[in-house]
Amino acid sequence: MPWEEVLEGSEAVALAIKACRPQVISAFPISPQTHIVERLARMVAEGELQAEYVRVESEFSAASVVSGASLAGSRAYTASSSQGLLLMTEVLYASAGMRLPFVMTGVNRTVSAPISIQVDHQDTISLRDCGVIQLYVESSQEAYDAHLAAFKVAEDPCVLLPVMVCMDGWILTHSYERVCFLSQEEVDRFLPPFKPPNYLDVENPKSWGSYAEEDVLMEFRYSVQKAMTCAKRIIRETWQEMAQLTGRNYGGLVEGYRIQDAEIILVAMGSVAGTVKEAVDQARESGQKVGLARIRCYRPFPHEELWEMIKGAKVVAVMDANFSMGSEGAIAMDLKAKLYGRPSAPLVVPFVAGLGGREVNTHAVLEIVKSARQCYESSIHPLEAQWVGLNAELLTE
Amino acid sequence: MGSPEKGKREELFVSGHRACPGCGMALAVRHILRATGRQVIVVTPTGCLETFTSPYGYSPWRVPWVHHLFENGPSVASGIAAALRMQKRDHIRVLVIAGDGATFDIGFGALSGMLERGEDVLYICVDNGAYMNTGGQRSAATPLYASTTTDPPGKLSSGKVQEKKDLPWIVAAHKVDYVATASVAFLADLRGKLKRAMEVRGPRYIQVDSPCPSGWGFASDLTLEVGRLGVNCGLIPLLEIRGGTLTRVRKITKRIPVEDYLRVQARFRHLFAPRRQQAELSRLQSLADEKIKTYGLLKG
Amino acid sequence: MKLSIGAVVRGGSSLGYHTGTWRDRRPFLNLEKCKACGICEEVCPDGAVRKTQEAYQVDYLFCKGCGLCAKECPAKAIELVPEGK
Known about the structure:
The complex is a heterotrimer.
Chain A: E1 3-8, H1 9-19, E2 24-27, H2 34-45, E3 52-55, H3 59-71, E4 76-80, H4 82-97, E5 103-108, H5 122-125, E6 133-136, H6 140-155, E7 163-168, E8 176-181, H7 184-190, E9 206-208, H8 217-246, E10 254-257, E11 264-268, H9 272-285, E12 290-295, E13 297-299, H10 303-310, E14 315-320, H11 330-339, E15 347-352, H12 362-377, E16 386-387
Parallel strand pairs in A: 2-3, 2-4, 4-5, 5-7, 6-7, 11-12, 11-14, 14-15, 15-16
Antiparallel strand pairs in A: 1-8, 6-13, 10-12
Helix pairs in contact in A: 1-2, 1-6, 3-4, 6-8, 9-12
Chain B: H1 24-36, E1 40-43, H2 48-53, E2 65-66, H3 73-86, E3 93-99, H4 100-106, H5 108-117, E4 121-127, E5 153-154, E6 157-158, H6 167-172, E7 178-183, H7 187-198, E8 204-209, H8 213-217, H9 223-232, E9 239-242, E10 245-249, H10 258-263, H11 278-295
Parallel strand pairs in B: 1-2, 1-3, 3-4, 4-8, 7-8
Antiparallel strand pairs in B: 5-6, 7-9, 9-10
Helix pairs in contact in B: 1-7, 3-5
Chain C: E1 9-10, E2 25-29, H1 39-43, E3 49-51, E4 56-58, H2 68-72, E5 78-82
Antiparallel strand pairs in C: 2-5, 3-4
């Protein structure tokens, strides 16, 4: 039976994973992901979830265990944050290259140094190159839905890549929200058992992990890019199917909020979108034509969908909760790259907001809107991002 | 002359791999799979064995095989073992066949985790005493005073100053059921140890001394001779340790001085020329004497 | 030939690569001296010595000429001769 419950975001994720019937789970604890894997451990201990739970000695091993399980033909799951995600980097590159379709949660938390357990997107953004699909969610409800979708997308024969559902630590994982759950029957119909095209099988022995010379390596890399491109369609179709099933329609790879006639469009990802939507409403009330394009799938980068949403706007204000030191925020970089050369592309004004848990409230968002408008009206094309709320007094000369 | 007999025994590690001529490791792997049979899945971390068996399109492995990364052989194997249990396919056994670089150094943490968790994996270290795949850099398995490219002898050095990490006993300290040391020069002994290891479940470890003609500096037809010398001088004891206790040793049939072993390998040449390094040679002899005494390696 | 998904390779496909081209000397097996003990087959790192109905035979497609069979043969029945003679 489907049901509704007010519960912690982590619990919702654990229930999503349970419903997807993974055979192998492995994780190393790290705040703020730990509640998810503790919930799953309890489910296994109580016999509510039939799975092997491997309590490893590091995140490197956690990702490796799920890779091994996936190679052997089992559906597998892991989760991490921050330092742990970085430690998994090598494994994720290798597993994407080997086309292993496991699912993981990237519970967003900033990275050392200085150390902090607060949220920004630096950790998952740092993994954007490796061939892992990245979905970003705004709410615990969407986190539940996204994990179900993730397995389906990952295991699709034209995709076969790991999928990471990125959700803001503490804000989503540790807060309570009312979440609607599907029945186990509904999930089983939506997500049939895992049938990999290749797996470790003594009847048909194969070898994984070849080394590839210069005559074929580029083609192997290209085939991952091709899978990513195919994934855009699969992700869109999967969300459409989920919308039929749940009645919750978030849109495709990008959610448009009051986009229709917007002159100023904010671009953001993650739970901050909730605050941005409030600010959009306030701006609309004061007569400003403002909207939000919330990126729900960051890799593959949905530039086609973004273009359809923003092409009519005057200015786009990109809010990055991450920064590539020495250059730019990642979303701003990706977006500007795909807009360059498009005739009458709107002005893009880059902002960095919310690093290390710095609060982004509606006031800050409205300031971003104001700043973006000013740039447009003065024909200023800022090359450097504006760091929102930066306290200059703390900085040495 | 007659045609090759239709194999009673199927070769599970076939020809066409790219090991150096005379490779001790390749010979070990043929016999490992001979002893385990085909109902196995093998994980090999990065190293010589992985590289010479996996150019794209050419695999000698007639069993399912995976090379993932360098430091995670034990973890990948743990994941495979877990999946097999969930799929009720765990009559298929999981092996890691790894070099000393992956085992003693970069994968040491993952190995300890695997042992501590009690994973059902047979871990075999084919030990050639250095990072041979990349030209022979020093590992924790490199013997005392051996020359390697990152720890070469010179005016201020006589090669590696640390003794070989005593990994079999470190593994045994995890209280695993089966630990053994073996040598590719004693193939029947190796196969016997593999068979006994396969009889039980849980974490098991076998370390196989695998002489390396290219890296140790001897002619390719001397691999087994060098292996025998290493065992017969006492530096490479052949042991079985069960539940943390020494249960079996293979006695030395014909004891030889350590020098006879060192002389035939270029990696120890600096101990003899340009001048004889007596202090180092004496220390190596004492090491061998100590092992012979500790393990009771001589008859009588 | 099209690339496989994830660079997976069929097991045993190394038989398509003839390492015999590496040799600069080849083992010659003297059947008169051979006692069919099987040690040559046992010690070849490349599996390039095969059992036949009568005795043993070298597979020259794969033999790298390392000489272990000759060295270890108790009957001294294997001789290494330069390749090309």
